């Protein structure tokens, strides 16, 4: 199947999805071979939500390189609705789905609302159709707002970034095995190939191989450390998709037609979800991250910070709650936890509408908190500065 062939307190940000819809799936047809069916939202219990885009949907594809619309050969491996689609990530800043076919270096960005697709052609990714080692089979959004992908053998670790409405692709290097991995090698087809990956709040990644092995990949050291094998799965269960849900657990799925499982990373114990029992899923994606300790949900319904994607160095503070009074403190932290900015706020009669200038903040992800003078936290939200 796919990939051989071929806080925890969570930050509830991003564009609105139905309350129950937790993550996204790249789903396949009920077939023994790789055969793309659709992208769909998934509910927290493992049942299918709405279908977003299908193999039969009308697609308008715009080439970033050629700056024009293009027509694609639907019989080829490198088109936006190819049967062999294998990777998926959710770009919460733009509410887009990012994906790649397995035998191609093409990157596609799907606008969920319009169904317009941007084709990102790149010369960085070295994918050869006859070399299964080179196929991109793991993809996830990073905590810094970029999209990351790793090929089967770990010889290419790429970052997909967007700046000034243009996507760029960077090769971050080769991922090596930790010296203590032993027979559980990240680069071996028996123990490390395929699967999917998720990110944590330090912008490291957990990679799940089809065999159920779990590796933690350090982005700074470019090293994969074996942390264990998933238990609780049926024999011969092929792990092909992974995503973090709203509870901070990892959801895993199979391309072979099986139930979805919820995984606790602390003990690697998997428990089946009660939803659909015969799903063919090639990849999963979500807006959540592992160990997002710096973030929490809004405990007041009428407090907000927006926009979450900041391209003009201004954020809006909106408070309309009579239980919120007096002086408040706004603090901005970078993703390492360093305090980079403070500002005092004053609420009168439970109401405040104010713009805050994010002076001297470089592009990247930040955590913004609003707290009372006593130190009680009222609101925490992640923002992405893209100036």
From TrEMBL:
Residues 1-19 form the signal peptide. Keywords: Signal. InterPro entries: Secre_tail. Residues 305-383 form the Secretion system C-terminal sorting domain. The keyword Signal applies. It comes from the Bacteria. The keyword Signal applies. NCBIfam families: Por_Secre_tail. This is T9SS type A sorting domain-containing protein. It comes from Chryseobacterium gilvum.
């Amino acid at each position: 199947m796919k990939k051989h062939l071929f806080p925890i307190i969570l930050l509830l940000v991003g564009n609105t999805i139905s309350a129950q819809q937790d993550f996204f799936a790249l789903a396949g047809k009920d077939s023994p071979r790789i055969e793309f069916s659709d992208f769909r939202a998934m509910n927290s219990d493992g049942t299918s939500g709405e279908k977003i885009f299908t193999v039969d949907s009308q697609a308008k594809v715009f080439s970033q390189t050629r700056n024009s619309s293009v027509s694609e050969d639907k019989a080829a491996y490198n088109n936006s609705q190819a049967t062999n689609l294998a990777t998926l990530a959710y770009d919460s800043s733009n509410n887009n789905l990012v994906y790649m076919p397995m035998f191609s270096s093409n990157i596609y960005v799907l606008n969920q609302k319009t169904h317009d697709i941007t084709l990102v052609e790149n010369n960085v990714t070295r994918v050869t159709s006859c070399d299964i080692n080179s196929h991109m089979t793991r993809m996830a959004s990073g905590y810094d707002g970029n999209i990351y992908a790793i090929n089967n053998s770990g010889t290419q670790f790429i970052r997909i970034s967007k700046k000034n409405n243009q996507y760029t692709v960077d090769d971050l290097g080769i991922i090596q095995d930790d010296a203590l991995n032993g027979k559980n090698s990240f680069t071996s087809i028996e123990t490390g190939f395929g699967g999917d990956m998720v990110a944590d709040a330090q912008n490291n990644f957990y990679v799940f191989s089809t065999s159920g092995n779990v590796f933690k990949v350090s982005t700074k050291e470019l090293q994969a450390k074996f942390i264990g094998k998933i238990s609780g799965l049926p024999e011969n269960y092929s792990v092909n998709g992974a995503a973090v849900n709203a509870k901070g657990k990892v959801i895993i799925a199979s391309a072979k037609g099986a139930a979805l499982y919820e995984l606790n990373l602390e003990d690697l114990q998997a428990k089946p979800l009660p939803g659909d029992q015969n799903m063919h899923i090639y990849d999963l994606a979500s807006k959540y991250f592992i160990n997002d300790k710096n973030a929490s949900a809004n405990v007041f319904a009428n407090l907000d910070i927006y926009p979450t994607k900041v391209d003009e160095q201004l954020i809006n503070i909106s408070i309309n709650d009579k239980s919120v009074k007096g002086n408040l403190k706004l603090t901005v932290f970078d993703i390492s936890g360093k305090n980079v900015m403070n500002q005092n706020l004053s609420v009168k009669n439970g109401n405040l509408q104010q713009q805050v200038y994010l002076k001297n903040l470089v592009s990247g992800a930040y955590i913004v908190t609003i707290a009372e003078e006593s130190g009680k936290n009222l609101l925490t939200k992640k923002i992405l500065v893209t100036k």
